[in-house]
Amino acid sequence: MIDPDLGRILKRVRRVVVLTGAGVSAESGIPTFRDASSGLWKRFDPESLATPEAFQRDPARVWEWYAHRRAMAAEASPNPAHRALAEWERRLDGCPVVTQNVDGLHQRAGSRDVIELHGSLLRSRCLDPRHPVEEGADAVGVDLPPRCQTCGGPLRPDVVWFGEALPAGAYEAALAAVAEADFLLSVGTSSLVQPAASLPLEALERGVPVVEINIEPTPLTPVADWSLRGTAGEILPRLAAAASS
Ligand code: BV8
Predict the structure, then answer these.
(1) How many CA atoms lie within 13 A of 57 on its CB side?
(2) What is the residue with the minimal CA distance to atom 10 of ligand 1?
(3) Residue 193 Cα to ligand 1 middle (Å)
(4) Would you list the domain boundaries of the chain?
(5) Are strands 134-135 and 119-126 parallel, antiparallel or unpaired?
(6) Which of 24, 43, 161, 162 to mutate to test the pocket of ligand 1 (most atoms within 8 A of CB)?
(7) How many whole angstroms from 220 Cα to the centroid of ligand 1?
(8) Cβ–ligand 1 contact at 192 (below 6 Å)
(9) Class of the CATH-defined domain 1-30+78-118+166-245
(10) Cα of 100 to ligand 1 centre, how many Å?
(11) C-alpha radius of gyration, the chain, whole number
């Protein structure tokens, strides 16, 4: 049951900005990073994999971890949460999805306005940013990582590692989306990683209503206008339906 005040706001929204994290893809079978049961990082030491230093130290190992995750993303399908956001985009004046995820599932569900704050598993690039980005570039069992076709140097996943700057313009685009929004939804994120976790706070500063959907409390919970406890796949379609009725 949706809170009547929230229901009244949802009926009026025309421009929603949505911040998503790994929890949105959990019901597609992709493990999140930090959730106790299946958290990817529980099995791997993040410092040993998701940093430029790790790639420098052991490029083949880091490449194999991303190839494994790329295979999981390829086998996964968008779930009702991804599809509800794509449907919202068709019905509203705007529904930019600012995602921390690198699995490409929002685009596969049909969302066209997607800001990938942390890049994408589906692309690889040369260490030299001047060389063209390569789609996929998956090569398992040969000399890993694959080589750049321009300079022969090692390719890396086109994701943002800890300590690296976000893709040029991505955070600015996310801030612009918040500035134009009349509603912000934060779904399936532990609200720990910066600068992504600051976006809902920007919305609150602007007096834009902030709703969180998560199966557990996060640092955003005490300050959000509403924090709905439950899964993205179950709650998001209900919110989307309330906004259109
Ligand atoms: C930068 C890509 C500067 C790679 C990732 C301020 C304070 C402290 C530290 C910092 C700071 N500012 C910057 C930092 C450092 C760092 C940082 O934030 N550290 C954290 C740990 C404190 N930030 C950075 O390094 C960023 N860069 O600031 O650069 C700079 C500027 C100029 C020049 C040079 C440098 C870059 C951060 C990006 C790191 N890359 N990923 C990869 O994927 O391998 S982050 C990684 O965590 C993923 O992208 C992931 O999406 C992201 C956030 O995690 P979540 O998505 O929230 O996932 P998580 O598992 O944590 O949580 C899932 C949630 O879902 C849980 O709450 C769970 O309860 C919930 N859930 C589960 N199932 C469901 C569900 N909810 C609903 N339904 C369900 N079914």
Answers:
(1) 8
(2) 194
(3) 3
(4) 1-30+78-118+166-245, 31-75+122-159
(5) antiparallel
(6) 162
(7) 14
(8) yes
(9) alpha beta
(10) 7
(11) 18
| 171-228: pLDDT as tens digits | 999 999 999 999 999 999 999 999 999 999 999 999 999 999 999 999 999 999 999 9
99 lines ligand 1 (CB under 6 A): no
Summarize pLDDT for 162-184 with one digit per residue, the tens: 999 999 999 999 999 999 999 99
* CATH number, domain 31-75+122-159: 3.30.1600.10
* Contact residues for 165 (Cβ-Cβ < 8 A; gap 6+): none
Q: H/E element holding 20?
A: strand 16-20
Instruction: Round to whole Å and give the CA distance between 35 and 152.
Output: 38
Give the angle 201-193-78 at the CA atoms, nearest 5°: 95
Rounded CA gap, 146 and 140, in Å? Answer: 9
